[in-house]
Design a protein that fits this description.
- The structure holds 2 protein chains of 2 kinds.
- Helices cover 0% and strands 50% of the residues of chain A.
- In chain A, a hairpin with a 7-residue loop joins strand 9 and strand 10.
- Chain B is 0% helix and 58% strand.
- Chain B has no helices and 11 strands.
- The model of chain B has no long low-confidence stretch (mean pLDDT 92).
- Classes of the chains: A mainly beta, B mainly beta.
- The interface between A and B is medium-sized, with 30 and 26 residues.
């Protein structure tokens, strides 16, 4: 158990629906990351927060994707108008500062049908 | 373009044998390099992290090496166990980046009895 919690673990949704995932990082970690991983590939960076500030976003994060970390603790990742290509494992990680170990959650597996 | 390439793509070995996984990267500037183990359907778990000034780092039966001049790293697993069956992912943090870890596609290791 790494201490990073993600909810739900699995989500099946119909194309066009909105979905929201939650990540609870390790409590003393001020940095929180979202990654997306498709089958057979390594995780790809989506976005990164330091406390409540979203400091970096990948070009992979299209207008349909939005992430928040309102109080600098838990974070949510919302995907609007889901497409089949959004099907993937969405991973959350947290760390204390750059260069130290990032702890990953178990991920949320999204299937868009 | 910053890239992380791993080889082999997959590997099958017998229990008790040793193996070495390779990672080549083109990321520059470079901050640190990590090796993660990822079991199927689960989040990655950190094995080692090395800065550019470190040549080797051990964690139990896992030993990682780094040659920052040739931009190569290896992960050596000694006396493999069935539980070592997993994907092993090489991850590079670019210098100056806050959260954009660059992941390789991983090497899928299968340890057979």
């Amino acid at each position: 158990d790494t201490g990073v919690s993600q909810d739900p673990r699995h989500k099946i949704t119909k194309r066009g629906q909105n979905v929201t995932f939650r990540c609870d990082p390790i409590s003393e970690h001020n940095r929180l990351y979202w990654y997306r991983q498709t089958l057979g590939q390594g995780p790809e960076f989506l976005t990164y927060f330091q406390n409540e500030a979203q400091l970096e976003k990948s070009r992979l994060l299209s207008d349909r994707f939005s992430a928040e970390r309102p109080k600098g603790s838990f974070s949510t990742l919302e995907i609007q108008r889901t497409e089949q290509g959004d099907s993937a494992m969405y991973l959350c990680a947290s760390s204390t500062q750059r260069g130290t170990e990032a702890f990953f959650g178990q991920g949320t597996r999204l299937t868009v049908v | 373009k910053n890239q992380v390439e791993q080889s082999p793509q997959s590997l099958i070995i017998l229990e008790g044998k040793n193996c070495t996984l390779q990672c080549n990267y083109t990321v520059s500037p470079f901050s640190n390099l990590r090796w993660y183990k990822q079991d199927t359907g689960r989040g990655p778990v950190s094995l080692t992290i090395m800065t550019f000034s470190e040549n080797t780092k051990s964690n139990g039966r896992y030993t990682a090496t780094l040659d920052a001049d040739t931009k190569q790293s290896s992960l050596h697993i000694t006396a493999s166990q069935l539980s070592d069956s997993a994907s092993y992912i090489c991850v590079v943090t670019p210098g100056g980046s806050q959260g954009n870890l660059i992941f390789g596609k991983g090497t899928k290791l299968s340890v057979k009895p």
